[in-house]
Specification:
It is a single chain. This protein is 57% helix and 0% strand. With 101 residues, the chain is an all-alpha fold. It has a domain at 12-77. The chain is globular, with a radius of gyration of 15 Å.
Length: 101
């Protein structure tokens, strides 16, 4: 997290990407038939970038950050015990990503 940002800060671009991402399952859902089709995936990234008003490369970068953050938080939450209050997890992107799963 860049310096000067609050712990609960969520990038508005990330929220925007996450809200549109649900429409493009080939990007994130490995159970989708088109998930392994690179052509369809590229087309969906282009559509997502168009919807968000951003460049494709920027959307891909932010999507990867969103995905990585979700996996990190999701794995930590499944490992922590119920009484482990010392390991409070920053869930700034978890709420956004839970809507996709």
């Amino acid at each position: 997290m860049p310096r000067g940002r609050r712990a609960g800060y969520v990038d508005p671009d990330m929220q925007n990407i996450a809200s549109y991402l649900q429409q493009y399952a080939a990007i994130w859902d490995s159970r989708d038939k088109a998930y392994h089709n690179i052509t369809i995936k590229c087309t969906q990234f282009e559509k997502l970038a168009n919807d968000c008003g951003m460049e494709v490369s920027e959307v891909k970068k932010k999507y990867k950050t969103l995905r990585t953050e979700f996996r990190k938080v999701n794995n930590k939450s499944s490992i922590c015990s119920g009484n482990d209050t010392a390991n409070v997890i920053n869930t700034r992107y978890l709420r956004i990503c839970r809507s996709l799963s």
